[in-house]
Amino acid sequence: MTDRVDDQSLRGFLAMVQERFPEEFLRVSERVDSRLVPTAMVLELDRAGQSPVVMFDRLGDFDMPCVTNVAANRRLLAACLGVEPSALPTAFRDRSQNPIPCEVVERAAWDEVVLEGDALDLTKLPIPYQFTVDAAPYITAGQVTARDPLTGVDTTGFHRLMLKDKNRLGVSLHSRRRMYEYHRRAEERGESLPAAITIGVHPLHYMGSMTYAYGADVRKYEIIGALFGEPYRLARCGVGDLEAPAGAEMVIEGEILAGVHEPEGPFGEFTGYASYRSTQNVFVAHRLRMRRDAFFHSVTSGMSKDHILISCVTREGEILNALRRNLPNVTGVHVPHSTCGAFLAVIAMKKTAEGEPQMAAMAALATELYTKYVIVVDDDVDIFDLNDVFWAIATRVHAEKDIFFVPGAKGAIIDPSSDPKDFTLTKMGIDATRPSGREFAERLVVPDEARERARSILRGAGITL
Ligand SMILES: Cc1cc2nc3c(=O)[nH]c(=O)nc-3n(C[C@H](O)[C@H](O)[C@H](O)COP(=O)(O)O)c2cc1C
């Protein structure tokens, strides 16, 4: 396959990492149990503050290699966009404003091997079993694509896929975004939804697939093209006029059944809890197409950085997007990993008048169902340092007037705090900014010059800073 296709592929990304950031690539050549050990390794790396991509040459009894921890590293994601890590959310937001039409190429890299009928057996893929609570091994890096039965516009997004049989996967569409709606529309007509699962895509595909603040007629593939800065190269696969990225490792063609619900889960979710909540849909596979030397990709699930970091970055970008329309004085947004990359957003602003932090908090709380707590701080606070954020809350908040609640708001199905009957919850905004228009206590600061001198002395004494 040509380099043009591979430039936008997962293997193109891995080649970039090995060439420019060799210290961020870990190859495990010894045979490793596919049950629990890969997850434990990635969580141990997270704990140690390390985020290399991990390539397992041999998992369990499988011959196919499996890569994980592809999206756990802000430095590597920033390199994909050619920016510094601190500029990642803004670059993501700015680039995704200008979708670029896709290019459809004749042949895809994944057309080299085609398995169907009796030869199709998904249990032969090196699918890790990630947590003891999981109902089965799960495909976690499957980008599911389908077309809207009404408009023909397609979508792509990760959905967890429970291995049930050689050609049967359980799927949960709990995000209730496009795929949930497309399936509902197909079901209304009594039809299954033709769909394809792409495995082994570039992290920019991963990022672009998470966008949501765009018109329903904008293809996510075009937003992914915008992130690449050139048309995303797709090829036709063999189901329902669908197109998939030409450089992917493999594509599973099939359909999400209408009117069929089967037990799906539990699954170790990004919330850090076992999730028993699911839309309980069923995907039936008809065909597997793959590269002759295909490798598998698995997102390490649970609260790993691999599972959560892109959600942090894309939410930061999307919330910025919502705020910049009315509040140009917002200077940054951070969605911390420790709040599952979902439930809390910290906003920094140069406040010009009272009430602006409340406006910012309300706009951010309304961007989507996962954002349930918002803290607004002044721009002297480092929003990427939660110690600094808690210091601002401790020293600048009058609880009775600076904290407000929005009861009965729609929450996420898999948020364990949402009401089990209707999934509502109470959202909260905290204004942790200084009062405007009057003197406030003066913050202690160490001048940059003295700080730099101190750092150089400490470095000279062998202390890593
Ligand atoms: C690793 C990962 C796994 C995900 N799993 C699911 C899932 O099982 N079900 C779901 O509805 N959303 C899941 N999401 C979120 C969706 O991928 C995301 O909301 C996406 O935008 C939905 O795409 P859609 O608009 O095509 O439905 C996951 C996200 C990530 C990063």
TrEMBL record:
Q: Which PANTHER family match?
A: 3-OCTAPRENYL-4-HYDROXYBENZOATE CARBOXY-LYASE-RELATED, FERULIC ACID DECARBOXYLASE 1
GO cellular component annotations of the record: cytoplasm
Q: Where is the 3-octaprenyl-4-hydroxybenzoate carboxy-lyase-like N-terminal domain?
A: 23-90
User: By what name is this protein known?
Assistant: UbiD family decarboxylase
- 3-octaprenyl-4-hydroxybenzoate carboxy-lyase-like Rift-related domain span: 107-302
Tell me which residues make up the 3-octaprenyl-4-hydroxybenzoate carboxy-lyase-like C-terminal domain: 312-432
Q: Which GO terms describe its molecular function?
A: carboxy-lyase activity
Pfam family for this entry, one: UbiD_N
Give the organism the record lists.
Ancylobacter mangrovi
